[in-house]
Amino acid sequence: MQTASPAVPTPGVSKSALPKTDVRTLLISGAAGCAVGVLPLILGASQPAQLLITAAAAICGGLVTRATQRAAHPAPADAALTPRPIVAAGTEPARRAPADESRTAGVGRNVAQDLAELEPLFSVTHEQLRSIVTQTEEAATAILTSLEALNAAQVRSAGCITDTRERIVGFAEQSDTALHTLAQSLGTYLDGRLRETRAERSTVDAAAEQMRGLDTLIVSLEKVGASTRMLALNANIEASRAGIHGAGFKVIARELQDLAQASQAAMTEARSQVSNVQRTIAQVLTADHGAEGTHSEQQRLEALMTELDGIARTTTQVLLGMVRTDLAEIASQTSAVGDQVLSVFGQVQFQDVVRQQIEAVDESNAMLHQCLDGLRQGLIGAESEVSIRPATILESARSRYVTQIQRRVDAQALGKATAGTDAPDIELF
Amino acid sequence: MFRILIVDDSPTILASMSGILSSAGYAVERAANAEEALKKIQSGLSPALVITDYHMPGMHGVQLIQELRKLTQTRFTPMLVLTTESQQEKRDEARKAGATGWLVKPVQADKLLQVVRQVAPSLQACAA
Questions:
Q1: Domain boundary among A295, A316, A342
Q2: Cis before A93 (ω within 30)
């Protein structure tokens, strides 16, 4: 008769997790060994056969013990994933301890219930991840819309600056040309006026000279008139002396006297008119301010032209200075804005990278959900439609990695070094 | 007018790339997937440059390049892959399929324009 062999640890279950072999198990094992050991007596076998049968008995006892313990303390993983036949309440195998079985079943039901309560979490998590993707997409779209408007405004601004610069340069050139032309026109006009003035003065001087000659002539004529009057008077006197024989001569003397008087009146009138003309000429000469006044006016006009020329030059320099400095600075700033707009256009692409990473996390979340659902069904004894082992979740996630960031984060999470170096972001074949 | 054809299932990427290239004066045509791109080319579009994503619903980017290389009008057209994919095997696959280059998202605007000028020098930037 053999005693039951010591308890053998069930594969997959640590020795420390096993309780000590209970009394019932030992009794059963012992009974089995005894039954086998009695056989030689019944059969009347020889000693070698008895030894063999005894050994078989010990082996049977051990096997029974092992089977009994495995039934009482199954491996948790195997028990969760291996589909079990649905067992109605109260019909568990007789070899199991009722208290352990009920406790295990109760724990299993509690765990299953806990897992069931996780159900809405996965749905919520999935929707949250979708919401994140949607929000980032909407934000990126809004940013791109603003960028397009900003870019359009920047292009228009640059165009306005270019147009303004061209107009200012054109205006400066036109202004400069116009003022130079005006100055030249004034100069030409003044030269002409000066020549005309000088010619007029010469004419006036000539007229004054002629008046002076005429005055001399009038003086001579007045002398002639005085002599004529004297002659007429003497003729009248002699005619009176001649008496009756001088009557004809008296008439001639009278006519001569009338002629002298008329001549004198004419001379007086002529002198008066000559005086008037001389006075007018004098006034004209006075209005011209003389030669010195004309020269002074010329100098003032030349000064005015020089001032106009200076204004033209200064205006041109100021305008061109504005174009070179102020407008150039504005153009430079506008160009810098354009460069930044371009840069942001590229940076917005992060949304697509993040979207793919979030979708990968969402797929892993869905697999985890299926895995836990399988475990829950296993705990309640139902058959799971899809069986996903926990170890495959991470493997599946890794197989879907596309970015270097995902691989790097994976390695960092596990404290591993990233394999290899990053390939270049831009490669032309 | 020669155009640049951009193929990507992400509206963000389509808008981003259009913004960069349009700002630089290039004419741009968009397609949301490979099938739409093929349809446009078969309808008469003759792009001077194709920039395609890798991962798209249906036909992926490298398959699109293989199909375009069979067409007369796009046999010698430069084609770039713009993707988040970082596996060297995928990059080699694209090279063998006839891709001209490989760009990883997000791509900087100035570098993208530099690559465009390099692979398509005859493509004139003009007012859009």
A1: A342
A2: no
* Bridge partners, B49 (sequence order): B4
Closest chain A residue to B21, measured at CA: A342
Cβ separation A342–B109 shorter than 8 A: yes
Tokens describing residue A140: 């990126």
Interface test with A, best of B84, B85, B118 (most A CBs within 10 A): B84
Residues spanned by the domain of A336: 133-342
Question: In this complex, do A428 and B20 lie within 8 Å of one another by their Cβ atoms?
Answer: no
A148/B contact by beta carbon, under 8 A? yes
CATH number at residue A167: 1.10.287.950
pLDDT tens sequence across B24-71: 989 999 999 999 999 999 999 999 999 999 999 999 999 999 999 999
CA distance between the termini of chain B: 10
ipTM of predicted complex: 0.89
CA B77, CA B37: separation in Å to the nearest integer?
A: 14
Chain A nearest-CA residue for B10: A352
Residue spans of the domains in chain B: they are: 3-119
The reply to whether A93 falls in a domain is no
pLDDT score recorded for residue B63: 96
> CB-CB: which of B23, B86, B105 is closest to A352?
B105
pLDDT at residue A11 greater than cutoff 50: no
Q: Which CATH superfamily includes the segment(s) B3-119?
A: Response regulator (3.40.50.2300)
pTM of the entire predicted model: 0.59
User: Do A236 and A295 fall within a single domain?
Assistant: yes
Residues A215, A269 within the same domain: yes
Peptide bond into B106 cis (omega under 30): yes
Stated length of chain B: 128
**Nearest chain A Cα to B107, which residue?**
A346
